[in-house]
Amino acid sequence: MHTIKPTIIAITGASASGKTLFAQTIFDELLAELGAQGITIIKEDAYYRAQDHLPLHEREKTNYDHPNAFEHELLSEHLTKLLNNQSVEMPVYCYQTHTRTKQTSLIQPTPIILVEGILLFTNPILRNCFDIKVYMDTPLDICLVRRIQRDTAERGRSLESITAQYLETVRPMYYQFIEPEKAWADIVITKGGKNRMAIEVLKAKIRQLIQQHIS
Ligand SMILES: Nc1ncnc2c1ncn2[C@@H]1O[C@H](COP(=O)(O)OP(=O)(O)O)[C@@H](O)[C@H]1O
Ligand SMILES: O=c1ccn([C@@H]2O[C@H](COP(=O)(O)O)[C@@H](O)[C@H]2O)c(=O)[nH]1
After folding, report:
1. pLDDT of 19-78, one tens digit each?
2. Which positions fall inside the Phosphoribulokinase/uridine kinase domain (predicted)?
3. Which of the listed residues 14, 42, 85, 99 has the most CB atoms within 10 Å of its CB?
4. Can you tell me the mean pLDDT for 148-172?
């Protein structure tokens, strides 16, 4: 099964546009059919640069919505290894400490690799790795509401810190870098991470690709 080059499907879009929910739903629903040997997910967030050299109050000032915040070179190195059927140790990022933890997560090469993150199409080397490019086209006001709900519940953030960061970096970087990524997309998805028809279309395409791997 692993002799044919894996297919990499990349999903980008604004923060809280539904990338994780969309990718995770496809993964969860196909896992039973394909098994862990068939499909894997990589998050661009795991490749935020390590900031151990900075005190916490300095890390809080980082612009996490600029491409320079990511170690895209490491992500492209890892994708290249996976394409060559080698496993990789993916970093594990912590949103509370704004740096990588000491742990890593072993990612094995699989025929289908889902990659999701806000700035994946800004890097030409990364773009070149992707076989299918998906853009989540969720209105920014809906993203903001969902980010407030998610980040207060899951990422330990206050309303004040979310709104300040939104005005300082999230919104301006969206217009500068994320929205222009749509031009690179093969598929543009409306209605967020619960778009059932889009999920089914991607799942059908993945099943077709798997059939080609087997035959
Ligand atoms: N279509 C949708 N309807 C309702 N809630 C959604 C929808 N899409 C995403 N969400 C929720 O919005 C929040 C942000 O989605 P998430 O997938 O984490 O976004 P991203 O990965 O793009 O940052 C999550 O709590 C998710 O469950
Ligand atoms: O330490 C950090 C790292 C990132 N962020 C914010 O996260 C989002 C990207 O993640 P999504 O899952 O796509 O929302 C990005 O907008 C950063 O602002 C952070 O707040 N702190």
Report:
1. 999 999 999 999 999 999 999 999 999 999 999 999 999 999 999 999 999 999 999 999
2. 8-197
3. 14
4. 96
Domains, the chain: 7-210 (3.40.50.300)
* Ligand 1 site, CB within 6 A: 13, 15-21, 146, 150, 191-194
Name the residue with tokens 């960061």: 165
Spatial contact of 79 and 125, defined as CB atoms under 8 Å apart: no
User: Does pTM top 0.95 for this prediction?
Assistant: yes
CA of 145 from ligand 1 middle (Å) equals 10
Of ligand 2's listed atoms, the one at least distance from the Cα of 48 is 3
> Which ligand does the CA of 13 lie closest to?
1
Average pLDDT score, the chain: 96
Q: What is the 3-state secondary structure (H, E, C) of 22-70?
A: HHHHHHHHHHHHHCCCCEEEEEHHHHECCCCCCCHHHHCCCCCCCHHHE
Cα three-residue angle 53-57-60, rounded to 5 degrees: 90
pLDDT confidence of residue 1? 46
> Token match 């989540």: residue?
136
